[in-house]
Amino acid sequence: MTISTTPPRTRRYATSGTTMLMLSLLSVGLVAGVYFAFQVAVIPGLSRASDATFAEALDRINESIENPVFFAAFFGALVVTAIAGTQQWRRGNGAAALFALAALGLYLVGFGATIVGDIPLNEQLAAVAPAHAGPVIDRIRTPWLAWNVVRTLASVAALLCLGRALAVSGRHR
């Protein structure tokens, strides 16, 4: 019988790396789902309503989305994805780190599209009375949808990169 003097290897660090990748995948997925829902349901549905209803409903939606739960996913995705990539890099798992960092870059594209594209357009619509919103809606609808396509596709691509990072991280043990 031989007695090993080497302490058993703990899996705590490996588990935390996987946990951060899963949290990143979850938060990015939730945000991508919100963008997708706007693209395929919210805006097309509001477009079937009167201009006043469109303007008032979109304004209420934009007010409602500013809440701690959404902000936790929206801003948290940046943080947990950066941590996940860093953890994978420190573990020596370059492939998973690169996929996670690519996801971070893609998510930043979607994040930026929200900040520089959709939010300013939302504010233009909110600045007019719903009864007089028709010309503003006509002016902002196409660019708003274009910015939303950018952020949706970027977030979905980030989600795919995180899925790949999670898959290759499991092979690096």
Walk me through this protein's architecture.
By secondary structure, this protein is an all-alpha fold. It has one domain (13-171). Helices cover 84% and strands 0% of the residues. The protein has helices at 12-47, 51-65, 68-90, 94-126, 134-171. It is elongated, with a radius of gyration of 21 Å. The two termini are 28 Å apart. The model has no long low-confidence stretch (mean pLDDT 92).
Provide keyphrases for this structure:
173 residues, single chain, mainly alpha, 5 helices, transmembrane helix, Membrane protein, transmembrane, Anthrone_oxy, membrane
Structural topology:
Blueprint: H1 12-47, H2 51-65, H3 68-90, H4 94-126, H5 134-171
Helix pairs in contact: 1-3, 1-5, 3-4, 4-5
Organism: Actinocatenispora sera
Transmembrane segments: 21-47, 67-84, 96-116, 144-167
Protein name: Membrane protein
Summarize the structure.
With 173 residues, the protein is mostly helical.
Q: What global shape is seen? A: elongated
Number of domains: 1
How many separate helices? 5
| Structural class designation | mainly alpha
* Count of β-strands: 0
